[in-house]
Amino acid sequence: MTAAAARSSNPVPFSEPPWLAGLPSPYYTPSHRRWQAACRAFISDRLTRHAVEWEVAETVPAHVYGDFAAANMLAPNLPAPLPAAWLRRLGLGELPGGLSVDEFDYTHQAIYTSEVGAACPLMRGARRWRWRWRWRGCRRGWGTAG
Q: What's the distance, CA 8 to chain centroid?
C-alpha cells in the first residue's frame, strides 16, 4: 500500500481522486479539503445511511429538506459563485467546514455535487431498474406498471 492510499478514507485502490488521497494538487486548497470532509460526513450521516430504507419506501421524508436547510447545505445548490451579499443578509455567512460564502467557488460546487451524487445512485439506480422491470412486464402482459 502506498503512502497516498494509506491516507485515503476508502480502502479500494483508485476509488478516490488523487488530491483526496493526499497527493499534491495545484487546484485543491485546504478549504476544498475541509469542505469535502464536511460534505462527506453530512451526506453519509443524512443520506447514505438511510438510502435503502427510503428507496424501499419510494419517498424521502420531508424532514430531510429541513435537515439540509438547518445545516446550510441547501445554498451549495445555487450556481457558483454564490450570491454572498444576499446570503449574508439572510444570515448565512458560513457553510459547513468553516467555509465562508465568499470563498465558495466552482471547485467547491463540484465537490458538493460529487459527494451528493455518490449517495444518490443508491436511490436512483434501484428505482430505475424497478421501473424498467415493471415496464417490460407490462409490455409483455405480466401485470400492471403500478
A: 18
